[in-house]
Amino acid sequence: MSAPTTNVLMSAPTARNTGREPARRRRSNGGSQPLVYAIALVVVALTLGPVLYGVLGGFRTNAQIAQDPSGLPDPWVLDNYVGVLTSASFWQYAVNSAVIAVLTTAITVVLGVMAAYPLARYRFKGREALFMVFVVGLLFPATVAIVPLFILITQNLQLGNTWLGVALPQAAFALPVTVVILRPFLAAIPQELEEAAQLDGTSRIGFFWRVLLPLSGPGMVTVGVLAFVGSWNAYLLPLLLLQSDMKTLPLGVADFSSEHSADTAGVFAFTTLAMIPALVFFLAMQKRIVNGLQGAVKG
Asked: Are 116 and 182 in contact (CB under 8 A)?
């Protein structure tokens, strides 16, 4: 009788201690949450603060900004935004940006998925070495090769001051991240689907077009959104390759700022309207981007 009693007494504190551990963990996690929220709020404020300041600045007059730079619009003025929206040059810049962004996105997605497909589904000698070429490409921004690109586009290809002349190099520099994202996404598609398609008489190319592309939609949307936003915000390549009426919105913002340096409120309005399309497009596709990146990580 003594041995069982001793065992029960020895195990009782252990049971009580085990019960306390989850409570302690909950208290420790709860204590760290306010700090996490505070840091997140600081990051959000630093990120959105300049954007909100620019948006609100467009609803003010230059006199209001000079009198109280950090104040709110009082009264609210729409003339700055109306003046920008009724400007023919603004819409010309917007059309150029949209066409170049669409071309860049289409080239990036089409060539990216075609390059990622054999790297993900085929087994051949040198496959990993070829993939490392794309990985290393992430380390080289467009600014590194800007002079050779300028010579190649303007002199060799004769595509200076054209939409395609900007879209091609932008797509080339977007391909590395596109392949890196799409390769694990395509590799995660079950091999049984391809085997079943082959049993039905489908070739590898047919499997690629009929099965693989529809299933890889989230990944293609992800890389497409990244390519579109990157092209819309690009500045250096359009600056070197485009002139006059072919300029994009970032170049238009710079020109407007230099021509109307005294019109601070107008510059705020022009800048705000220039960034709205890419911002809205990115926010609308945010969930699809997250789903695509999750699929790439799982792969």
From this structure: yes
Q: By residue range, what is the domain housing residue 138?
A: 89-249+277-297
Residue 184 lies in a domain: yes
Q: Which two tokens stand for residue 235?
A: 């500045």
Cβ contact 213:137 at 8 Å: no
> What average pLDDT does the structure give for the chain?
81
> Is residue 142 one of the residues assigned to a domain?
yes
**196: in domain:** yes
Cis peptide bond N-terminal to 169, omega within 30 = no
211-258, pLDDT tens digit by residue?
888 888 888 888 898 899 889 988 888 998 888 888 999 998 888 888
Structural domains in the chain (count): 1
Q: Give the dihedral of Cα atoms 219, 220, 223, 224; nearest 10 deg.
A: -150
Nearest Cα to 277, choosing from 237, 249, 235? Answer: 249
Q: How far apart are CA 44 and CA 39, in angstroms?
A: 9
What does 163-175 look like in DSSP terms, one character per residue? Answer: HHHHHHHHHHHHH
Question: Residue 205 sits in a domain of what CATH number?
Answer: 1.10.3720.10
Question: In the structure, what pLDDT confidence band is assigned to residue 11 with cuts at 50, 70 and 90?
Answer: very low
Longest dimension (CA), the chain: 99
Nearest to 224 by CA among 96, 104, 99, 115: 104
| Residue at 5 is within a domain | no
